Amino acid sequence: MRTTRMGMLAAAAGLAAALSAGTAQAEGKGRVAVRNFAAKGVDPSIASTLETSFCTALADHYEALCPDEIKALMATRQQQLGLGGCDNEEECLKAISTVSNAPKVVTGEVGKLGVKYILSVTLLEAETNKVLARGTESTEKVEDLLDKVVVLAKKLAGK
Using CA atoms, how far apart are residues 55 and 62, in angstroms rounded to an integer? Predict the structure, then answer.
């Protein structure tokens, strides 16, 4: 049993190393994991589309891991180690950081207040849950949020 567990740990470490070497990791770019954006009063497909667009925009500044990549890594880790899901937000941030080898995590929320659509993102240091940067953009047309993700990605990158 001990040998099997060690083998699974080695496989998990190998997967993390392969991911680290395999993606377009440019020099000077830190790794950031992007969590699923929460949908508050808007269709979940809007949040999903914006998180994908945001992750793509963030890749100009960081080595960004998108939610689908993180989900696959987390599922593999849970299967290999026989673990369950996260019990709370802080635990999830640390688990995502560990499995993705990303010291920073972005959370986001898409909402609607009256006639305004609002997109908010936060860059967190996963280990301490410390807010490193945050930004919010709003517009009356939902399709204009696609332009806002670029603005927010730059803001989180300090540009």
Answer: 9
